[in-house]
Amino acid sequence: MLSIAHGPSGAFIVSKISNPLVSIPLAVLIHYLQDRVPHWDVGQGLTHGLKRKSHSFIQELFLDLPLSIIITYLLFQHNKDFNLFVWLGWFAGLLPDFIEFPRLFLKHNHPLLEWHHKFHKWFHVSIPNKFWGLLPQIATLLAITYFK
Ligand SMILES: [Zn+2]
User: Fold this and answer.
1) pLDDT averaged per 10 residues, the chain (length 148)
2) How far apart are CA 86 and CA 72, in angstroms?
3) Å from CA of 92 to ligand 1 middle
4) Ligand 1 centre and the CA of 104: distance in Å?
5) Distance CA 148, CA 127 (A)
């Protein structure tokens, strides 16, 4: 899924479960489960050479990631004191994708990164249809907004 779904999901989990020893690992775990839901993300098309990595990187760095921060801020921090755990939850919700970045964009292939890539890929189900691929992510954000 996109960072706009993963980041706020991690922040949501941490905001609901006060023990970080439980909530932070859960935020990471939920990332893998969310990736199992058929979705569209900025990496769509890379595998079949339909999209360039640089295009995907620019979309991630200048659109998806900043929007994830803005949405998390608006949902959990707007008019509130700074809450480190909200941002740790945001980070934990995105950690599996952050671990992928060196391998994907810098071609850094450490054996542990390769192992994680296979593990992450096993969960990952992306689809090219933007409507059906974005719908579960929009539903996630609406659910977080409602239940926060
Ligand atoms: Zn992922």
Assistant:
1) 97 97 98 97 77 85 96 97 97 96 83 93 93 97 97
2) 8
3) 11
4) 12
5) 28
Neighbours of ion ligand 1 (CB under 5 A): 35, 96-97
Ligand 1 centroid to residue 77 C-alpha, Å: 24
∠116-133-115 over CA atoms, to 5°? 5
- What global pTM score does this model have? 0.93
